[in-house]
Specification:
Blueprint: H1 3-38, H2 41-71, H3 76-108, H4 120-141, H5 144-148, H6 150-171, H7 176-211
Helix pairs in contact: 1-2, 1-3, 1-4, 2-3, 3-7, 4-6, 4-7, 6-7
Length: 219
């Protein structure tokens, strides 16, 4: 296998590593939100424990990228592909961290009854998960249009966050325990809003990888 063919093979392996990591991150978000909905601290603890695996996957991607740069002679487009992989891995790792944050909230609320039914938070989570799936598919397809479309869904998440913020502020009163739980739920909404932001970052990375142009999807 000549050097160029070997390089393309390494790029394919890098993409596979990113997609594998994306699968684990999607599952972390799924489990984190489910743990909150059911106040299942056992499931929440599992998300926290599995975060080490995602961290190791991030390091593996970083090492593979650095080897490609050091041992190959990447062209400008190749460098964009490697740089995008580094950026995407970082954003995936941050999304996984927010899954851990949500799970830790579940653990803190263990044994309590929710002061209000969770309606908008699960809706936020569903949109954020759809965004992550779309972002990863835009990466594999090198599809700029799919990546750019993430901005629309990010706006939906932002609007839901504003709704949740207003609702929680109105529900606050003089009860310390009630206010404490409401504050934790508001933080969960904030974590999900950040998940959506990191997902738009992935879309921006895809756009730059394909076109060489910078586009801000999180206006």
């Amino acid at each position: 296998m000549d050097n160029r063919a070997n390089f393309h093979h390494s790029i394919e392996e890098l993409q596979n590593d990113i997609l594998k990591m994306g699968h684990y991150v999607e599952e972390a978000i799924n489990q984190a939100v489910e743990s909150l909905m059911t106040l299942n601290d056992t499931l929440a603890e599992q998300v926290v424990e599995n975060d080490d695996l995602i961290d190791k996957m991030t390091l593996n991607v970083e090492e593979r990228c650095l080897r490609l740069i050091a041992l190959q002679q990447p062209l400008a487009s190749d460098l964009r592909t490697i740089g995008a992989a580094l950026k995407i891995a970082t954003d995936l790792e941050r999304i996984a961290d927010h899954a851990v944050d949500i799970s830790k909230t579940t653990i803190r609320l263990s044994g309590e009854n929710l002061v209000k039914p969770l309606i908008d938070i699960p809706r936020m989570a569903e949109i954020a998960k759809e965004m992550l799936k779309e972002a990863l598919e835009s990466y594999t397809e090198r599809n700029v249009n799919r990546a750019a479309a993430l901005a629309v869904k990010d706006d939906e998440v932002d609007k839901l966050y504003s709704t949740i913020f207003q609702d929680i502020v109105q529900l606050m009163g003089s009860d310390y325990n009630r206010n404490r739980q409401l504050t934790h739920l508001l933080m969960v909404a904030q974590y999900l809003e950040r998940v959506a932001d990191h997902t738009t970052n992935i879309g921006e990375g895809v756009i730059f990888m394909v076109s060489g142009k910078r586009k801000d999807l999180n206006l």
